[in-house]
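Students often ask why we bother encoding 3D structure as a string. The short answer is that it lets us treat folding as translation between two languages. Here is a chain of 469 residues written in the first language.
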Amino acid sequence: MRADVFKRCLLALMCTWASCTDALDMFSTDAAVAPAAVLDGIGLGAACADGALPEVLSLEIMVERVLCHDPQVRYAWAQAKAQAAQVGIARSAYLPRLDATSSYSRGHNATHYEQTDSSEGRQRQLDHRLSLSWVLFDSGQREANVRNARQLLVAANANQNERLQEAFVQAASLYYEALAAQDRQRAAEQVAALATENLKDASAKFDAGAAALSDRLQAQTAYSQASLDLIRGQGVMREAEGQIAVRMGLAPQTRLILAQTLTRRPDTTFVKGLDTLLEQAGNDHPALISARAKLEAAKSAVAERQAAGRPSLSLVASLSDIKTHQSMAFDGDSHIRDNSVGLQVSIPLFEGFGPSYQVRGARARVQAQEAELDDARQRVALELWASYQALGTETQALNRTAEWVEQAVLALTVIQGRYRSGVGSMIELLNASSAYAMAEQEHIAALNGWHRARLRLAASLGRLGFWAI
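And here it is in the second language, the structure alphabet:
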């Protein structure tokens, strides 16, 4: 009965200890993990609460919602938490190891002799043992292991930041695409209204005998084309809104009202000289931070493998208590206590050349990480150069298309007056209307391209945040 009670108590104690240790973060490793939804110092806790959307959806709220529901962002955060746990595992090697075992056994002993009396009896044994092991010196193996784990955590945090910025760019670009579709729809409505006016003018002049039937038919054709463009624009706009809703964790049919248009031009004074931008990207870009951290981790792995082949010194201690209950035929009950403490030196002498090949492999991984760092530097420089040039091109295109719209509006106004006064032709009016519609579409595309190029440049610097929008 006592044994059953003891075993139940021991099991309860072990379960309680396991639950406590699972909840504990003795080395505060979670504090070293970058928050899951923070970009440029702005937390997203409120946005991630899945509250009701505002009536008018701003770009900032949309980006926050998308970042909260992006699976790749959550995956990168979980990877960083897993690596933080590895830091805790590495640091725990500095603490002693304490193991406790307890066993209870029952048995039946029977010994039979041919010429003497036989003996028979039952035996019960209760065995408690406590052992301690504490590594005091290991030639720097634990220190190298901790450095390795910490550098890999830096890399994991950088990877999380990079994925967060990628999701940011995708979300903001999607919003700008929706704004562009919205503005194209407005332009299509203006063109449709213009086509309606042209059809009315052509019909009135035809009814009055001042124009040929061909003018009316051409105006009717232009009106039909404008109506078709209007219908297609509505489909494109609904598709863009549906993509935004899905990325925010909503149903695709959710109706959204966007808060902004593409007519505003953000400040471009943040664009500095290319040399300054390259230096800034070299310091801040997550890909370079991750590559440098992985290189340092690989160097620490070399030191760890080298230290593994050197002597180590440990403090060892044990405490045991064994109680045996048996019949007098087997010398009766016994109680044994054994306590010991001492130092243990471990000297690896020969392990089949395995450690030497492990060191060679670790050094080869250092060379691989050096190559990866050079590759990351090259990729960042090329991406920055392409983004820098693209922003300059889109800025010029934005200015030219704005002038194009002004000229097209002026030409259309003049030709409308000429046609209504009976001087101009329907061909001139339709050509001017088409030129205006094309200028509007190109200007909207330039606005969209300008905003996206600005985002890509900020992302190529590795410092993308809400300031960029």
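Translate back mentally: The CA atoms of residues 191 and 437 lie 6 Å apart. Keep this in mind for the problem set.
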